Amino acid sequence: MINVTFLGTGTSQGVPIIGSDHPVCKSKDPKDKRLRVSVLVQWESYNLVIDCGPDFRQQMLRENIKHIDGIFFTHEHADHSAGMDDIRPFYFKQGDIPVFGTERVINNFNERFNYIFSKDNKYPGAPSVDINIISAKKRFEFKGKKIIPIEVMHNNLSILGFRIDDFCYLTDVKTIPTKEYNKLKNIDLLVLSCLRIDEHPNHLNLKEAEILIDKLKPKKCYLTHISHLMGFHEEVNKKLAKNVFLAYDTLRIKSH
């Protein structure tokens, strides 16, 4: 049994957007208020976070998380990684925090977060990490679970999704290489990014997401990485297929 909590379901600017008068940004519905995208995956006593964006501190406090066992990174973009400094409280309690990312992502972090990733001339009080380089070519084990990295394309940028048992998390998707489809069979619970109604060069829109869901045929699919241009949560949710739902911040779901 895997428990999944949506820490954030918004796009890179979050919802509402600063200074915006768009009706969705003015919504009073809590489900229309979206922090930057991330999920907490739990089994037994383990806490795994996928992506660590600029709202990480707020998300950890809201969910009352006391420890984390690792952070998987889909890619290096700021809305997925800018919360890195806020791993400090966990580091002070636990020691080096295990982080997992591709070689490109880790190299990027070495530049942006050198004071965390460098082993030389460590700044006093800075956190440290246990670096694990992964790729879509090789499965790995984490806390008793077999992890299947999945390559997806964010326009022309190769990034990773993750499958754990029959749960699969795919964010910032525009296309999926044909060679990866075998990894996506018999999914119980799929979390898939879907930015808005209109087309976008880097992300699936609603129509494209629906076509992909129909092809993958998960038992249930929850859409995430949602912008204000998707529309009001309650209105859009009513129009989706019976096994497809808009995710929202704090939503908890289970995968068997």
Structural description of this entry:
The relative contact order is 0.17. Helices cover 20% and strands 29% of the residues. The model has no long low-confidence stretch (mean pLDDT 97). It has helices at residues 56-63, 78-81, 88-94, 103-112, 114-117, 206-216, 233-238; strands at residues 2-8, 38-43, 46-50, 70-72, 97-101, 129-133, 140-142, 145-154, 157-164, 167-170, 189-193, 220-224, 244-246, 252-255. The termini are close together. The protein is built from 7 helices and 14 strands. A 7-stranded mixed beta sheet has the order 6-5-4-3-2-1-14. β7 and β8 (145-154) form a beta hairpin. With 256 residues, the protein is an alpha/beta fold. It has a single domain, classed as Metallo-beta-lactamase, Chain A, CATH 3.60.15. The longest helix is centred in the last third of the chain and has 11 residues, at 206-216.
Q: Quickly count the domains.
A: 1
User: What structural class should be given to the helix and strand makeup?
Assistant: alpha/beta
Identify the quaternary structure here: single chain
**Total strand count, please?**
14
What is the level-2 CATH architecture name?
Answer: 4-Layer Sandwich
What would you report as the Rg, rounded to the nearest angstrom?
18 Å
CATH class: Alpha Beta
- Can you tell me the CATH topology? Metallo-beta-lactamase, Chain A
Flag low-confidence runs: none
The fraction of residues assigned to DSSP E strands is 25-35%
The portion of residues assigned to helices is: 10-25%
Distance between the termini: 5 Å
What do the pLDDT scores average to?
Answer: 97
